Amino acid sequence: MRSLPVAAAPSSWLAVSRSNDNPAEPTATDAVHDVSMDSFSEADDSFRSNSPLHERKGHNNLQSLELDHSKEEVPEMTERLFKVIIIGDPTVGKTSFVQRYVQDSFRRDYKGTVGVDFALKILKWSDSETIKLQLWDIAGQERFTWMTRVYYKDAQGCIIMFDLTNRSSFLNTLKWKKDVDSKCTLDDGSPIPCMLLANKCDLPHRQVDQLEIERLYKEHNFTGWTETSAKEGLMVTDSMRFLVDVMMRQKNDADNDSEESSLRLTPAEPELSRTCYC
Predict the structure, then answer these.
(1) Of 1, 33, 228, 258, which is the most exposed, with the fewest CB atoms less than 10 Å away?
(2) Where are the residues of the annotated region Disordered (predicted)?
(3) What is residue 145's predicted lDDT score, i.e. its pLDDT?
């Protein structure tokens, strides 16, 4: 386990952004229910029109250049699907966090979530992998209902958020963590990775200090923690990239274990396979 650097320290923020442990920042296309989004703009045409076409002397006729594309191979894209639940007390900023991450926007006209809201983030993780993130923004009141078991089902990652200016929301993070651990596990029975996010770090009058957060993170098996500001966009993308990286590693490890198990089940001698009629 490791904690992410605090968003308020610029030098630490740069250290995370440039760390070789994290993959390059993925490009993304996004969609949110009940929200219409503009597509990403195309690259500036003026750049292409003003860029000179460099030609080798003696080959001014472009039609004489023959390009053989028959040997070019387009890498096969693998699509990964992850469900991430975002939980915590009411008004800690869960919905604003999701909107900042998916839309890169912030709304002051806050409306409390009723039940659960959904969002989708599509990441081009590498040249051969695309990730679809299902983000489940669960209302803070839902911890007291039986519906959390339904909402948590098949989740592979979790964000537990509290408000730095609201001490009770920090104390309740442990209750949220115990609730998740009791209702949601990975295929091997281990707890799903949970990030602890201390939101609203842009506001004064904090009621929780970093030593308390660090202690909670270490003692209760959180995957990592950091301070965030959905309003200012601080450490929003970085914290999610960290969580996705953890989920990807766990998924790859599980796939490798499955392949090794299959290899062990394969008979060492071809003759043995003929004696099996099951």
Answers:
(1) 33
(2) 42-64, 253-274
(3) 74
- Extended beta strands in the chain, E state: 27-32, 78-88, 116-124, 129-138, 157-163, 194-199, 224-227
Domain ranges across the chain: 10-15+24-34+76-253
CB 203 within 8 A of CB 165: yes
Distances (CA, A) of 171 to 179, 254, 261: 14, 34, 42
β-bridge partners, 136: 85, 118
Residue 109: its pLDDT value, please? 76
CA 226 – CA 235 distance, rounded (Å): 8
The structural architecture, per CATH, of the domain 10-15+24-34+76-253 is 3-Layer(aba) Sandwich (3.40)
Tokens found for residue 164: 């730095």
Q: What are phi and psi of 230, to 5 degrees?
A: -65, -30
- Amino acid 181 reads D
Give me the pLDDT at residue 210, please.
Answer: 95
Record the pTM: 0.67
State whether residue 17 is helix, strand or coil.
helix
7-31, pLDDT tens digit by residue?
Answer: 443 333 333 333 344 444 444 444 4
- What does 91-133 look like in DSSP terms, one character per residue? TSSHHHHHHHHHHS---SS-----SEEEEEEEEE-SSSEEEEE
- By the 10 Å C-beta count (0-12 exposed, 13-18 middle, 19+ buried), 232 is classed as middle
Please say whether the beta carbons of 230 and 88 come within 8 A.
Answer: no
Token look-up 């953890």 returns 246
The whole-number pLDDT of residue 127 equals: 87
User: Tokens for 278?
Assistant: 């099951």
How many Å apart are CA 70 and CA 233, to the nearest integer?
Answer: 45
